[in-house]
Design a protein that fits this description.
Layout (H helix, E strand, L loop, with lengths): L1 H24 L4 H11 L8 E7 L5 H14 L3 E7 L18 H17 L2 E5 L7 E2 L9 E19 L13 E10 L5 E2 L7 E2 L4 E2 L3 E20 L14 E2 L5 H15 L11 E4 L9 E2 L3 H9 L14 E2 L2 H34 L2 E4 L11 H6 L3 E7 L7 H10 L6 E6 L8 H14 L3 E4 L12 E2 L19 H13 L4 E2 L3 E4 L45 E4 L1 H6 L2 E3 L2 E3 L5 E2 L1 E3 L5 E2 L1 H13 L2 E3 L5 E2 L7 H14 L9 E4 L2 E4 L4 H7 L6 E4 L8 E7 L3 E8 L5 E7 L6 E6 L4 E3 L5 E3 L2 E8 L4 E7 L31 E2 L2 E6 L10 E5 L9 H4 L4 E10 L1 H5 L3 E10 L1 E6 L2 E6 L5 E3 L7 E10 L3 H9 L8 E2 L15 E11 L1
Parallel strand pairs: 1-2, 1-18, 2-3, 3-12, 7-14, 12-15, 15-16, 16-17, 17-18, 19-50, 21-22, 21-26, 26-28, 27-29, 28-31
Antiparallel strand pairs: 4-11, 5-10, 5-13, 6-8, 6-10, 9-10, 20-33, 23-24, 24-25, 30-31, 32-35, 33-34, 34-40, 35-39, 36-37, 36-40, 38-39, 41-51, 42-43, 42-44, 44-49, 45-48, 45-51, 46-47, 46-49
Length: about 950
């Protein structure tokens, strides 16, 4: 009887639990509501920032306030003040402003902070005048240092008093320097050194007053090399005219502290708790290439590596070693120390200082510029790692910042966005294409490069920095910018949810500098480097995973392997919860000894690692005993695995592979691709993706970067019990009625992707299956949704007979007739041909009562728009149009009989600037310091409405 009652009790409990679970499956939980709310109306912190150049330090306070008001109005997060010189100003039209952080400058800062606070905008500062760190307050003792040398040849045997020769620098005359040490080596015409005992003689004990060497020269011919620490003399790059100064010694803790102390002291009067700088930014490291040095370098080297670097210094001054392995190891130790000192003393210390003062550090420390560091570690030592991606250039390093953010547990991945030299050639449609590619690399905080401050005297298009896409209040399409900003905000919000999903981590070695190559670059240009090289810089990939179609990954560094990675259920796990199925090692015969020891522990606990058997360490530390230890550990890990006949070895709970690719091992582990594209040739990855996962959703961002529509079938590796929804970041609307199939590897969805389109595919347990009320356009099939026979309503062609009104103040005719929709630049009328700005198209069309009675949705669609449009029907606002297929829903505003459509269209500044140059004797309509980037022969851009226009109907 007791057993029966117990079974009955368990049955009732089970039924109650299942009932509750079923109710939950059919109810949108508060977390779902929160996700949707954040998507529809992304908060300020998700929106784009911009670099805000105050060119030459000159500021118009009225326009300063207006620009911040406009940033808020158009949906931006805020701006980073950038006091910088005008690199391109041949006619010297930009006045010089006050010294940065002087009394007048601080008034401008204060006004920006107060206005930003009032508007709920985040204001930051590019933490110097231009870049890199430094300013007029930097003393020579704290300024950038380099290692220099001088040499002379003596013969013995004889006792000699040798005057130490002054060093020379390729950057100019040397004024401030101090002797580090001198040594003697047997003279070699090949400039070779032999580091065996007795071949290098240190001369410190024979040196007086750092000027003379009194030495009993042994028999033979000897080269005496003296080494010096010298100020490089480098000043800030491109400072405003009254703000120049020395660049700091980035390897010195004291130099960084003194620099920030000087800056914070000046900011203190205006940087109040009520009106506070949100960010400080450190730009890409562009200190010129040199042999970096710092006062504590020898001390730090000996402490960390356990040997004296002095005998090996000739290897840094153009000499080579007879033992190339010794040469390579010492240079590696030197470069690693430069990296570590720069990261610890500059980047990491700046974060500590920022934390104490309530700032967040945005750090662009990757392999743009002239890097010296392990970029993942440098970027990880920031609050917000920042990369960059350029328009129509190959300079893309966003994947680097994303990997750093993922492995160091940072939420945001910023990127200097849309840098380039394409003055007013492109607009939001083009920008969306590139931003979407960067989103798939991990971007979730756009930082426009740039939003130049424009005083009233600047005119239009006004003052601009020499590079960047000019997204500011003087941009022609600025009045239509809000949808573009909202799109970025929604995408950024979604791409901050949960954790990134990647199957592999790629250890890229412990060398410095190092790099993370981009997965893709701007699809409008042809890469000049091959698959073995970084598409950004052309250097060999430090670790090459080969083909990994449908699998994503992060790059990994020695710091995280040796301090942070653990094993859970056979996967490599980070504290954030992000995990990887396996790790790939570089195809090298050397490895960091510390990394190898950590790998031994990780594999024993269950890790899966792919890579060749190492034979030695990367360092001279504890040499040669270190190599014996490497061999002992490698023998345990690799066993009989030789990479040819035997391709794997089990050690503890884990496995080492050698001779198989990442893709092969994942297939062997039965790890299916997390995203598959079927039905098209996608070898260029123009259908791209990124996957994030929360506790309750799988979130995929899927992008078509092609200018052509694509019909594809996508297979998503997700829980088959979840249901897909399509979330449209352009409108904030969600389609929950989605056709899908459950397949072996997950869930398959057929999509017709519009040109340059993107979709969030959100897999959830809690979908209602009901589309948002305002959704009229099918996010799965577009205009190709299935309609039964007899329901098709013929479109109305409105391609001809348009009347256009231009702005005469910009040289356009007040009225202009177009029989067909063609580009303004094709017109014989110069006022139209060279017009830039806004113009209004209008015409009438008729629609029958019978057509309206069928209850179909109606859209106006244009074949091409350059650059943006605002549609009105019968005086009613139908919204902005800026992405293909260039459509606007007009259903609610139609009436039987005659209807009037008006389309406001805006192009870019290019054509008007060219027109002014074509007619140099007439009063120009434009004014800009960048006019020298154009000529009268510059190409005109397509503008206006072009091609076919029609009213479409769909059910």
């Amino acid at each position: 009887m007791k057993e029966k009652l117990l079974r009955l009790s368990k049955t009732i409990t089970f039924l109650l639990v299942m009932s509750i679970l079923l109710m939950q499956c059919n109810t949108i939980t508060p977390s779902d509501d929160k996700l949707e709310e954040g998507f529809i109306n992304p908060s300020t912190e998700n929106r784009p920032l911009a670099l805000w150049p105050w060119l030459n330090g000159y500021v118009d306070t009225t326009k300063l306030v207006y620009e911040l008001e406009q940033m808020k109005d158009k949906g931006m997060r805020g701006a980073l003040i950038w006091d910088v010189g005008a690199l391109s100003d041949p006619e010297k039209m930009i006045p010089a402003g006050p010294a940065m952080l002087g009394d007048q400058s601080l008034q401008y800062f204060s006004l920006a902070l107060k206005t930003g606070s009032m508007l709920d905008l985040d204001i930051g500062w590019f933490a110097s005048s231009s870049w890199n760190a430094g300013g007029p307050w930097v003393e020579e003792a704290n300024a950038a240092m380099e290692l220099l040398s001088s040499s002379q040849v003596v013969e013995g045997p004889s006792k000699q008093i040798i005057s130490i020769a002054k060093p020379k620098s390729r950057f100019g005359e040397v004024f401030r320097y101090s002797l580090i040490s001198s040594l003697a080596i047997p003279y070699s015409e090949l400039r070779e050194i032999n580091n065996t005992k007795g071949q290098t003689i240190l001369l410190g004990d024979y040196t007086s007053e750092d000027k003379y060497i009194e030495w009993e020269v042994p028999e033979g011919k000897w080269e005496i090399i003296s080494f010096f620490m010298s100020n490089s003399g480098q000043e800030l790059e491109c400072p405003s005219p009254n703000s120049n100064g020395l660049i700091i010694d980035h390897l010195s803790r004291i130099a960084t502290k003194n620099n920030f102390d000087s800056v914070l002291t000046r900011l203190a009067p205006i940087n109040t708790p009520e009106n506070h700088l949100k960010f400080l930014m450190l730009d890409s490291y562009e200190v010129r290439p040199m042999t970096d040095w710092s006062p504590l370098f020898v001390q730090e080297f000996s402490s960390r590596y356990g040997y004296d670097p002095i005998p090996f210094l000739p290897l840094l001054r153009g000499y080579s070693s007879k033992d190339t392995v010794i040469d390579e190891r010492f240079r590696g130790d030197y470069s690693r120390l430069v990296s570590d000192m720069m990261i610890e003393n500059h980047f990491a210390q700046s974060v500590t200082i920022a934390d104490k003062n309530g700032f967040e550090m945005i750090t662009e420390a990757g392999h743009g510029g002239y890097p010296r560091v392990d970029p993942l570690k440098a970027l990880g030592n920031s609050h917000i790692p920042m990369g960059e991606f350029w328009n129509r250039k190959r300079f893309w390093v966003t994947k680097e910042a994303a990997s750093a953010a993922h492995i160091y547990g940072k939420k945001l991945v910023a990127s200097e966005s849309l840098t380039g030299w394409n003055h007013w050639q492109h607009g939001p449609t083009d920008f969306k294409q590139l931003i979407d590619v960067a989103f798939c690399e991990g971007l979730n905080q756009v930082v426009f490069h740039t939003f130049a401050h424009n005083p009233e005297i600047a005119g239009k298009p006004g003052f601009v920095y020499h590079a960047g896409e000019h997204i500011n209040v003087n941009t022609t399409w600025w009045e239509m910018a809000r949808p573009f900003m909202d799109y970025i905000g929604r995408c950024s919000y979604m791409l901050r949810q949960g954790n990134f999903v990647g199957d592999a981590c790629l250890y890229y070695g412990d060398q410095a500098p190092n790099l993370v190559p981009p997965e893709r670059i701007d699809p409008n240009i042809t890469p000049i480097f091959d698959d073995t090289q970084c598409l950004h810089c052309g250097k060999p990939k430090p670790v090459n995973p080969g083909k990994m179609t449908g699998y994503d990954y992060d790059y990994m560094n020695a710091d995280i392997i040796t301090t942070t990675l653990t094993i859970e259920n056979g996967e490599l796990v980070l504290p954030s919860g992000l995990s990887y199925k396996l790790m790939l090692l570089p195809d090298r015969n050397d490895i960091s000894f510390e990394v190898l020891k950590s790998l031994e522990e990780l594999v024993f606990e269950g890790a899966i690692v792919i890579g060749r058997r190492p034979e030695r360490t990367t360092s001279l530390k504890n040499y040669p005993d270190c190599d014996v230890e490497v061999k002992a550990i490698a023998d345990k890990l690799w066993g009989k695995c030789d990479g040819e006949k035997i391709l794997s070895n089990t050690y503890g709970k884990g496995t080492i592979y050698w001779g198989k690719s990442v893709e092969q091992v994942l297939e062997e582990l039965n790890v299916h691709p997390e995203f598959e594209v079927q039905g098209i040739d996608n070898c260029d990855s123009h259908i791209d993706y990124i996957h994030r996962q929360t506790e309750t959703e799988d979130i995929y961002f899927v992008s078509n970067s092609s200018p052509k529509e694509e019909k594809v079938t996508c297979v998503f590796r997700v829980d088959k019990n979840r249901v897909p929804e399509l979330w449209d970041a352009e409108t904030g609307l969600i389609q929950r009625d989605v056709e899908f199939s459950i397949v072996e590897n997950g869930i398959s969805i057929e999509l017709i992707m519009d040109p340059l389109a993107s979709r969030f595919v959100v897999f959830t347990n809690n979908s209602t299956g009901k589309n948002d009320a305002g959704l009229a356009y099918d996010l799965q099939y577009g205009f190709h949704q299935k309609q039964e026979a007899g329901e098709i309503i013929e479109p109305i062609d409105i391609s001809d007979n348009w009347e256009i009104s231009f702005n005469p103040e910009m040289g356009g005719p007040k009225t202009y007739q177009l029989e067909k929709l063609t580009s303004w630049s094709d017109s014989d009328n110069q006022g139209v041909k060279y017009y830039s700005g806004s113009a209004n198209y209008s015409r009438d069309f008729s629609i029958s009562e019978e057509t309206l009675s069928k209850g179909a949705e109606a859209f106006v669609r244009f074949e091409d728009i350059q650059e943006m449009a605002h549609v009105f029907v019968n005086g009613k606002d139908c919204g902005f149009v800026w992405t293909p297929p260039y459509k606007a829903r007009i259903t609610p505003y139609l009436k039987a009989g005659t209807n009037k459509i008006t389309v406001q269209v805006i192009n870019t500044w290019n054509n008007r600037i060219v027109g002014d140059l074509v007619n140099p004797n007439e009063k120009p309509f434009t004014n800009t310091n960048a006019k020298n980037k154009f000529s009268k022969n510059s190409a005109l851009l397509k503008s206006g409405l072009m091609g076919k226009a029609e009213i479409l109907f769909s059910k």
